Amino acid sequence: VQLQASGGGLVQPGGSLTLSCTTSEFSVENFPIGWIRRAPGKEREGVSCIIGYGAGRTYYADSVKGRFTISRDMSKNTVFLQMNSLKPEDTAVYYCAADPAHPVVYYSDYDCSAPLFGSWGQGTQVTVSS
Predict the structure, then answer these.
(1) What is the pLDDT of residues 63-98, one digit of tens each?
(2) pLDDT at residue 116 above 90?
(3) Exposed / middle / buried, residue 14 (Cβ in 10 Å: 0-12, 13-18, 19+)
(4) Given the DSSP bridges, would you call strands 124-128 and 9-11 parallel, antiparallel or unpaired?
(5) Number of other CB atoms surrounding residue 41 within 10 Å
(6) Angle, CA 68 vertex, CA 74 and CA 41 arms, to 5°
(7) According to the 3-state scheme, what is the secondary structure of 34-90?
(8) Quick check: 124 and 93 in contact, CB under 8 A?
(9) By C-alpha distance, which of 81, 74, 77, 37 is closest to 58?
């Protein structure tokens, strides 16, 4: 599965960025999909996940809750991560990831706080610095 992530960049603390993730291989509404980040010297962290039809169910790591918002545009088959009030500790490579082994039609109770993301995109660098 190919996932294309984009939207990273350099931003000052307190600023905003929106990451995008798209794929031509499946509908983003049909499988769990979200964002993982990896900062230098740190363990990878599950940032956010969305699953389900329509508005879906969402999950956010405590470190980003209230600042980040995950959403989907079905017409563009794209998942977004709106990141506001960015902090230097948000600096990381952000990966879009999906779990094509668990279609929501069969796994409606999928736990997005512990996703089994088997397919990852190439990553996009987010740097928060003054």
Answers:
(1) 999 999 999 999 999 999 999 999 999 999 999 999
(2) no
(3) exposed
(4) parallel
(5) 5
(6) 115
(7) EEEEECCCCCCEEEEEEECCCCCEEEECCCCCCCEEEEEECCCCEEEEEECCCCHHH
(8) yes
(9) 81
- List pLDDT tens digits, range 34-48: 999 999 899 999 999
Neighbours of 77 (CB within 10 A): 16
Tokens 């069969």, residue located: 106
CB 100 within 8 A of CB 27: no
pLDDT for 98 equals 95
Q: How many residues does the chain have?
A: 130
Residue with tokens 């010297």: 41
